[in-house]
Write a structure and sequence with these properties.
single chain; globular; two-stranded antiparallel sheet; 6 strands; 6 helices; alpha+beta; Glutaredoxin
Length: 163
């Protein structure tokens, strides 16, 4: 499982909790994963492990760390500044997750790619949509590579400008 999916979910959930985005902007946040419906519990249970991977990237261990690894660590710290791991290993799901197990939604939106972000494997291109009350797309953010995701703060700025 891709570690930054957990990070992005936790970041949006935190932003919603702190700023009460759903109430403040009269909206509903839904996270979509193109995985089998019965895998939601496994996804939740593996979240802390994925988040631990990010922390390991940020703080590599060893006496002699190669320069490339140190550069990677700085890059990861910039893109994933917070630590969303929990001490007890739990990972709550305060935002509903739509499991698009047949990939109808991601195919219909042309988000399922065989080659994207430098990899040649079928994957869903991470995308954020903001729809208005009439279900019209008001904002769309297509990630340019696998860890390119808008922050919760950025999305709130977009919402403010839409009002």
């Amino acid at each position: 499982m891709v570690s930054h999916c957990y990070y992005h979910y936790a970041e949006i959930a935190e932003q919603n909790k702190i700023q009460n985005l759903e109430k403040k902007y009269n909206l509903k946040i839904v996270y979509v994963l193109s995985h089998p419906k019965d895998s939601i519990d496994a996804w939740r249970k593996s979240a802390n492990k994925g988040l631990q991977t990010i922390e390991n990237w940020k703080y590599p261990k060893g006496d002699s760390i190669p320069d490339g690894t140190l550069r990677w660590a700085e890059y990861v710290k910039e893109f994933f500044p917070k630590n969303y791991m929990t001490k007890d290993g739990s990972f709550e799901l305060p935002i509903p997750i739509l499991m698009d197990d047949e990939k109808k939604l991601v195919k219909g939106l042309m988000l399922l790619k065989d080659e994207w972000g430098g990899t040649k494997v079928e994957q869903t291109m991470p995308t954020v949509f903001i729809l208005d009350k009439d279900a019209k797309v008001r904002f769309k953010y297509h990630s340019q590579y696998t860890n390119d995701r808008p922050t919760g703060e950025y999305l709130e700025e977009v919402l403010e400008k839409m009002l």
